[in-house]
Amino acid sequence: MTNNKQKPQESDFEYPEDMEFFVSLLGEDQLDKNKFDFRDPILKRREFAKVNKSIMAKLLADGRNRCELRLLESCNDTGLVLDHIIPLSSNELNKRIRKLPTPRGKKIARQSVGSNHPSNLLVACPKCNGYKKHRFIKRVGDKWLIVKGDDPIWHFNMSNPPKIR
Ligand SMILES: [Zn+2]
Q1: N or C end of the chain: smaller count of CB under 10 Å?
Q2: How many domains does the chain have?
Q3: C-alpha to C-alpha distances, 154 to 53, 72, 75, nearest whole angstrom
Q4: Phi/psi of residue 90, nearest 5 degrees
């Protein structure tokens, strides 16, 4: 499966610039269609509840029995959980790329992005998982880093400047 990755198409995304973001976030070689699922997050969460235990058992059996995020000093390997590399839903793209204003008394709209496929899952300790929340992470060398608002990744050269729709 890993050497036969299918790439998502720009048309799979709600906005074409989002694909460009994921190219720069993951790198071309990690841009796997399996990592994405644009269906209703409610559906995805329901499905995740059903497959969570079996995927976790498989990853543990593969020897993945340590927190792979390692974001915090207090990180330890007890009570490991599955963590979505690309969050099931996020408003970061609307916030950072399209710079949508926050509606009064509300939050910026979320988009459905990540999948429950094992290629989009990591083994993590509850502390790192809770700290990461719905933010994006990227692999830098042998470390996962949280993508912050001032990260150059949000300022890539976009072939199609974002349109507010
Ligand atoms: Zn951890």
Answers
A1: C
A2: 1
A3: 34, 24, 28
A4: -155, 150
User: How far is the centre of ligand 1, averaged over its atoms, from the C-alpha of 67 (Å)?
Assistant: 5
- Domain containing 62: what range? 36-148
CA separation for the pair 27, 22 (Å, rounded) = 8
66 occurs within a structural domain: yes
**CA of 104 relative to ligand 1 center, distance in Å:** 35
Predicted structure pTM score: 0.89
Query: Letter for the amino acid at 100?
Result: L
Give 32-87 pLDDT, tens digit per residue.
999 999 999 999 999 999 999 999 999 999 999 999 999 999 999 999 999 999 99
Q: What is the pLDDT of residues 4-24, one digit of tens each?
A: 679 999 899 999 889 999 999
* Ligand 1 centroid to residue 81 C-alpha, Å: 10
